Each structure stands twice: as C-alpha cells, then as structure tokens.
Amino acid sequence: MYRDRSSQISIAVFLGIVLAVLALLAPRFFDPANLGDLGTSVAITAVVGLGALAVIATGNIDVSAGAIFAISGVAGASAADAGLGPVASLAIAVLTGAVLGAVNGVLVTLLQIPSIIATLGTASVFSGGLIFLTDGGLWIVGLPKDYTWLGQGSVLGVSVPILFAVVLCVLSALLLTQTPAGRRIFAVGSNAEAARLAGINAKLVEGATFVINGIALGIASTLTVARLGQAQTNLGDAITILAITVAVVGGTSVFGGTGSVLGIVLAAALVELTRSALTFLHLDPLWSESLQGLFILAALVLSVVQRRRAGRRLRPTSIFRTEASRA
Amino acid sequence: MRKRIADHLPTAVLVVLLVVVVIAMSGLSRHFLAVSNLLSAIQLAAPLGIIAIGMTFVVLIGGIDLSVGSTFALSAIAIGMLCSAGVPLALAAVLGLLVGVLCGLLNGVLVSALGLPSIVVTIATMAGYRGLALAISGGSSFPIPADLAFLGQGYVAGVPMPVIILVIVFAVAAVMLMTTPYGDRLYALGANPVALRFAAQRSRRLTLSAYVVAGFLSAVAALVYGTMVSSAKSNFGTGYELAAVTIVVVGGVALTGGRGSLWGALLATVVIALLQNGLSISFVPTEIQTMFVGGALILTAVIYRWLPPLLVAGRRRDTVVDGGRTSSTATHPATPTKETTQ
How many CB atoms lie within 10 A of CB B102? Predict the structure, then answer.
C-alpha cells in the first residue's frame, strides 16, 4: 500500500475552488438546510464507494452494483411495508445484498470467470429477476415513519445517514489499515501470486470483498429508500457508474493495491458537490454526467503523472488480472 | 492440443446453442421460422452486431471498450443535429462517422499513450460521451430525414439494408483480421505484447487503431439505427456496451486477448437475436429475455473456462492409463490456472 496523499490533496484543492466559486456566485448554497441535504447525499454515496473500494482494491470490478442496490432496497422496503421494524428491514436489505454479492464471489473465485463477465451476467439476471418477481415493476410508497427515520431522521442535529456513513468509514479505515484482513485485501490487489505464496487465501479474500460490497450496497440502498420515503425497481440505475467513479476518483487501485477511505469520502463529496453546484450556478444539470466522466479521466491522468514522478514502473491494470501480470 | 480444443470449442458451442434456440423457439411460436421473421430479427440486431465487430478488435488486443454505446448515441445525435441544422445529408452522415472515429481516437490515446487500463478509461468516456450527447441535445430527439432512410429501412433483393451493411462490415473486418499482416499483429499484440515489442512492432499505434475501429463501427451502427427509426436521441444504445461484451464473450473471444474469431461474434449475434426475437413473438416478457441473455453469458463463460481442461484431462488419462474415456471422473482439472500461465 502506498502512502501517497497527492490525489487526495488534488481533490481537496478542487473542492476548495468549487466552494469558493459558490461562495462568490451563489451564497444561498451555504444555507444550512442545503448543506445538511448535501451532507446526507455525500454520506450515502460514500457508503456505496466503500463497497466498490473493497472490490476494486483486489483487482476486480462489480458492474452488478446497480442491480444489487435495487434488489436490496426493494427487499428492505417490502419488509418495512409488510410491518417489520426498521432494524429487521435493514437486516433483510443487508442480507439480500450479501447473498447477491456472494453469488458474484462464487462465480469469480470458484468458477474463475473474470469479474467483468460474471457481474455483467449477474447484472442481467438480477435486474431481470427483480422485474419478474415484482410482476413488471414496483412502486412502494407510504413507508412507515420509523423506517423512513433511517433516511430522514437526525440525532443531535446530525442526519442518520451521516451517522451511518461515519461509523462505516471509521470501521472500514480501521479494517483496512489496522487489521491483517485489510492488509490481505491490498496484498491480493497488488500481486495475487505473491499474496498466495505468502499464505494468503486469495480466493477467500476476493470472494469476501464481493460480499462486503453487497453489504455496503444493502445499507446504502436502505438509507436511500428511507430518505426518499419510497422504493422503485429502477432505484439502482445510476449506481454502478457512481460506485466506480467514486472508487477510481478516490484513488483506488487502478495500479493495484491502493485505496483509502479518506479518498472515497473526498470523491463522494466531489461528485455530489459538483452535481449540486451545477444547479446553484444555473448551469444545465445535464452536464453532470459528462463531468463524472471528466473527473475519472482527470484522476487517471493524475495517477499516471504521480507514478511517473515517483519513478515507478507503469503497470496497468489490476482490474484485468491478465493485463497486469503481462506488462 | 489444448489450443486446438480451445479454438474450436466456441464454434461448436455456438452451433449447438443455435440449434437449441431454433428448435425451442419454433416450438414456442409457429411464426418463428418464417424467412421474413428471421430477416427482421437480424435486421433489428444489425446495429448491435456491427458494434460487436468493433468490440472484437478491442478485445482481441486484450482491452475492452465500454464507451461504444455512448459513442453510438453521440454519433446519432451529431447526425440528427447536423441534418436539422440544414447540413447536406451526405456530409452530416460523414461527420457523424467522424465523431465516432474521434471518440475512438480519444479512448485509444488514453489507453496507449498513458498506459491506462482500458476498462476504467472507457467507463469514464462512457459517462463523458453520453453526458455530452445529453447536454448538447438538451435531452430532446432530432428527426433524421427520410432521404437517408434507405440505409435503415430499404431492401435490396428482399434483404434489409441493415443486414447487408452488417454482412459488408463483417466481410471487410474478417478480411482485415484473417488475411492481412495488420490482423496478425492485432492477434500477436493480444497474445503477447512483449514479444511484439521485441519484434519491433509499434504496439501503441496498433492499440490506437483497435479503439478507432470500435469508435468508427459504433458510428456506422448509429447511422444504421438512426435511419432505421428516423430519429436520434441521447439515450440511444443504453446498455449496448454490455450487450456487445456479452456477444463477444459468448462468441468465444477471450477477454485476455489474442484468441477468438469474428465468426464467433457473428454467430453469437445471430443466436442472441433469434433468442430475443423468439421470446418476443411468444410474448415472453422483456425481463425474462434479459435473464436468459445474462444466463447464457455466464453459462458460456463457464463452458469456455472449464470444458477444455476437462477434455484435456480426459485425453491424458486415455494415453497414460490406457483406460476408458472417463472424463466425468476428472473432477480436478489438471491444467494450470490463468494466473500462472500468463
């Protein structure tokens, strides 16, 4: 794992510039209500990013994230709608996410299908299955108050999703930096063969990251559904790209074995802040998707510049294991 | 010997799949086997098939291009907007194709000059190109004049134009890949880029060319599709990148590069087109069709990964032990895994 903070510094600088522009041109942006709303969005996006961090750090990718997000969100909402308590509903969403993540994990590790193919296939099967099981789509409204509290409530003035995100980020940071499990994730990501020779069960680690991703998606989808107060089957449409954007912009691993929770939080802030800033600066929000792409490219180019400066051999990519081992 | 099995396996699997699909679908609907229905099924799948041919170039060199669906949309929007602005139709079509080439060029430069992983680069440009198409069009759709409609809706000798264009694109691409030194180099780049560098070939330029081909063919597909539906909208081709990857993988082109054929991609296009058509005319809901395609992807990926080692293990047992062909007992494939062979 590299202690390279420059990508985080660049994101922070860019965030500062956007905030300064907003302060000059749209002071209403700093209205407490808006900031609270923005913070909640950042929190949920960061939770999605944490899951992607785990998967991408081991050199895999999950393009079924959107489908898992939608299914677990709908599962949780259905449970709440059926009268289950918020904790039980959250648990059902998390369990759903974990099981679907485990399916991906089994395909990638036991059946040895490249993660892009496996998750591409499961994305179709999962999202098709959701529509099929809900008879062509579902729109759950009027969710109970105690469930929507998970997304709308606050404790001591801090919204519940932010509290969730803070706890999860602290736990993830501890897991990644302070425990052997975290070291193993990065070890498998930087060099799977070396990790295996060092006695690490690389397959178990890779499989586990897919389950972790499913759990993160289950939590994030519950927070989203509770915040909106409704669940729709098209819930996860933009999530796959969002997850990858946040993870890559946050500095996770395209060169293998890197990534940090701080990077994820900053990247989540960047994505959500620019989306919101477009509206406040009276720019066409239609540009936000282009900007997302631009951010990823900027982050990638930056990572190349950094590595050249550091004199490291360029060794893309860890997402396609074979390309990585070949260079 | 293992190489041989691995090379012929996709064709065999696809032919079996094709037969299964045709039998199953003609059982589901008696209209399925009508020539007009089969032609219209392939006509509808032609734009995706053209994109998949471009994707094959990229996958053969060991990359992936997830921006093809967005390039498709951006080219279509360019053609639609230029036509609406009064630009001569032929020029608008050519400029639309140029947009595709430029999109591919940007991908290629980022991948080859900066050495970035193609999957992340093209995820970024997927968002970028799609967002650009959305932003410049303002989300509205543009009509594509009837004078161009021949490309998407015309018939020559009873065959729809899109099918003819698909066949032409396939033929040109197949000649390029199978008979020219350029094709050999693409395969070599995918199979072993280091060896290619030692052979003093310009691998960067080759890499670039594959992405340009993918971008160009996405634009060709956009021209065909836009004239087929007489309009252009920024949400065109959503999910086409994944559909194209599905076709390429089902077609037996290895994502690790260097292995696979255009025949596989074409056969897979036909199999998936007939599968979806058969299910559609039997009133099977779209979500079930999606599940079938996803299932087919996983199934073929498993077959391609595990059948060759099993067959090899079976043969080895034959020669060594002189026993019967009991490949079913070969529960532990003896061949090395991907990581160690590379």
Answer: 18
Interface confidence, given as ipTM, is 0.80
CA distance B265 to A29: 51
In sequence order, what are the residues at sequence separation of 6 or more whose Cβ sits closer than 8 angstroms to the Cβ of residue B63?
A323, B111, B118, B207, B210, B211, B257
Q: How confident is the model at residue B325 (pLDDT cuts 50, 70, 90)?
A: very low
Smallest CA–CA distance from B116 into chain A, residue: A316
Count the domains in chain B.
Answer: 1
Q: What is the per-residue pLDDT for A68?
A: 96
pLDDT at B340 over 70: no
What residue ranges of chain A have pLDDT lower than 70?
A: 1-7, 252-258, 307, 309-327
Mutant choice from A297, A305, A307, A325 vs B, greatest count of B C-beta within 10 A: A297
Please name the member of A116, A241, A319 whose beta carbon is closest to the beta carbon of B127: A241
Residue B80 has pLDDT above 90, yes or no: yes
According to the model, what pLDDT value does residue A98 have? 97
CA neighbor of B172 nearest in space, from B56, B333, B9, B341: B56
Q: Say if residue B330's pLDDT is above 60.
A: no
Statement: A7-13+31-326 belongs to CATH 1.10.3470: yes
Beta carbons of A111 and B302 less than 8 Å apart: yes
Put simply, whether B291 touches A (Cβ < 8 Å) is: yes
B339: confidence class by pLDDT, cuts 50, 70, 90: very low
Q: Where are the domains of chain A?
A: 7-13+31-326
* Gap from A289 CA to chain B (nearest CA, Å): 5
CA atoms within 13 A on the CB side of B7: 7
Residues 6+ apart with CB under 8 A from A317: A254, A255, A256, A323, A324, B116, B117, B118, B119, B120
pLDDT above 50 (res B109)? yes
User: What's the pLDDT score for residue A34?
Assistant: 85
Contact check, Cβ <8 Å, B255/A116 = yes
Cβ within 8 Å, pair A120-B293: no
- pLDDT (average), residues B59-86: 93
A185 close to A57: Cβ distance less than 8 angstroms: yes
Record: contact B301-A117, CB cut-off 8 A: yes
Alpha-carbon distance A287 to nearest alpha carbon in chain B (angstroms): 6
Task: Look at residue B258 and tell me whether its pLDDT is greater than 70.
Answer: yes
CATH number of the domain enclosing B198: 1.10.3470
Above 70 in pLDDT, residue B324? no
> Quick check: is B295 in a domain?
no
Minimal Cα–Cα distance from A312 to chain B, Å?
Answer: 13
Mutate to test the interface with B, among A286, A307, A314 (most CBs of B within 10 A): A286
Q: Which residue of B has its CA nearest to A254?
A: B117
Residue B132 belongs to a domain:
yes
How many other CB atoms are found less than 10 A from the CB of residue B322?
7
Number of neighbours of residue B94 by Cβ within 10 angstroms: 15
Of the pLDDT bands very low, low, confident and very high (cuts 50, 70, 90), residue B191 is: confident
Measured CA to CA, the distance from residue A52 to residue A63 in angstroms comes to 10
Query: Distance from B282 to chain A by nearest Cα, in Å?
Result: 16
Q: What is the pLDDT of residue A13?
A: 81
CB contact B194 to A (< 8 Å): yes
CA atoms within 13 A on the CB side of A112: 13
A128:B298 CB<8 A? no
